[in-house]
Amino acid sequence: MIPSRLLEKWWLRAFIALVVFFIWQICYAINRVQGLEEEKTVLQATIEVLKRKSDVLRTEIHEKERALTRLDGRIEEIDTQIRDHISLLPRVNRSTPYIYFITPTHFRAAQKADLTRLSYTLSHVPNLHWIVVEDSDKLTSSVAEILKSSRLPYTHLNAQTPKDQKMKYTDPNWTLPRGVEQRNSALLWIRNQLAGVRSGVVYFGDDDNTYDLKVFGEMRKVQKAGVWPVGIVGGMFVETPILAKNGSIIDFNAVWKRERPFPIDMAAFAVNITLILQNPNAMFSFDVPRGYQESTFLEKVGIHRYNMEPLAEKCSKVYVWHTRTEKSKLSKDLIEKLTKKTGFNQLEADALGVEF
């Protein structure tokens, strides 16, 4: 114990008080440090929890971004399908008669290109059944794929032209009639498969012609046999019927073989399907004079040149053109490859639509 006499000295008392204060400060600091250590531990634990939550959130964000990317792709795909398959023509009812669009086709350098282009046109036409007949001994996968991709109702047939009626690569287009066997095959299919049909229109559409979508609306107006102008055919800008003031046909402006009963192109007319079904002998033939395929057929279904129905705004508009894909200028070696359908590399085979 400190002697009382020493306590009487003020400075000693002050010193003791100062020591006590410092001891208190040290104790407070120690307690504070311990509290901060605890807070640090809690904060570190909180940080770890937040880090884990951040990682989870980053993963969720990444997954949602991936899902959003997939949805964007799906939206674009659906949008493309809508653009590709919503008709550019006025909407039609299910009861609207079908157009049976017959296309004879044969293998050549531009066959795949021509059929692809035509498929894009026809894919915009509602109530159309595409009948494609190959001039071959079997159905080919290339044509089948084009038909499938078109998403149209279709029939895929094949009918081979007799060898003595088949043109060589170097022959002019007019040397022999083309598409005879193929059109007849399609007509037989219609008569066998659609015997009970009471409405519809049959049209013979070449794979290299050009069609305004409006022509399909004109086809649906056909009662028996409709006719309209055709551009770039017969050595003229336009071949067309000539009408009287009352709208009836009085003549045709054709300059090539005007004496034909129907001096028109195959692209210029469509007939009601009932005429096909009622006249089973109406077929195309190799034994008719050059340029008479249309006339012979129309006469066999009972049509007279002057009782055809003039359409396309009374034959004042052109909605179809008899365009022809230019025959490829190839060397003898390539022509031989094309004739034999062999010797192509993989890229050539894809371009031509042949198996590699």
From TrEMBL:
Reaction catalysis annotation: 3-O-(beta-D-galactosyl-(1->3)-beta-D-galactosyl-(1->4)-beta-D-xylosyl)-L-seryl-[protein] + UDP-alpha-D-glucuronate = 3-O-(beta-D-GlcA-(1->3)-beta-D-Gal-(1->3)-beta-D-Gal-(1->4)-beta-D-Xyl)-L-seryl-[protein] + UDP + H(+)
Residue ranges the record marks as coiled coil: 33-81
Official protein name in the record: Galactosylgalactosylxylosylprotein 3-beta-glucuronosyltransferase
Pfam families according to UniProt: Glyco_transf_43
Single GO BP term: chondroitin sulfate proteoglycan biosynthetic process
Entry EC number(s): 2.4.1.135
Organism of provenance: Caenorhabditis brenneri (Nematode worm)
Pathways involved: Protein modification; protein glycosylation
Lineage: Eukaryota, Metazoa, Ecdysozoa, Nematoda, Chromadorea
Subcellular location, record wording: Golgi apparatus membrane; Membrane
Family to which the UniProt record says this protein belongs: Belongs to the glycosyltransferase 43 family.
Enzyme class, broadest EC rank: transferase
UniProtKB keywords: Coiled coil, Glycoprotein, Golgi apparatus, Manganese, Membrane, Metal-binding, Signal-anchor, Transferase, Transmembrane, Transmembrane helix
Entries under PANTHER family matching the protein: GALACTOSYLGALACTOSYLXYLOSYLPROTEIN 3-BETA-GLUCURONOSYLTRANSFERASE 3, GALACTOSYLGALACTOSYLXYLOSYLPROTEIN 3-BETA-GLUCURONOSYLTRANSFERASE BETA-1,3-GLUCURONYLTRANSFERASE
InterPro entries registered for this protein in UniProt: Glyco_trans_43, Nucleotide-diphossugar_trans
Superkingdom of source: Eukaryota
Annotated membrane topology: Single-pass type II membrane protein
UniProt-annotated site: Interaction with galactose moiety of substrate glycoprotein, residues: 239
Cofactor needs: Mn(2+)
GO molecular function terms attached to this record: galactosylgalactosylxylosylprotein 3-beta-glucuronosyltransferase activity; metal ion binding
Keyword Glycoprotein: yes
Residues forming the catalytic site: 294
A cellular component term, taken from the record's GO annotations: Golgi membrane
Keyword Coiled coil in annotation: yes
Positions contributing to Mn(2+) binding: 208
First-listed, main subcellular location of the protein, grouped into a coarse class: Golgi
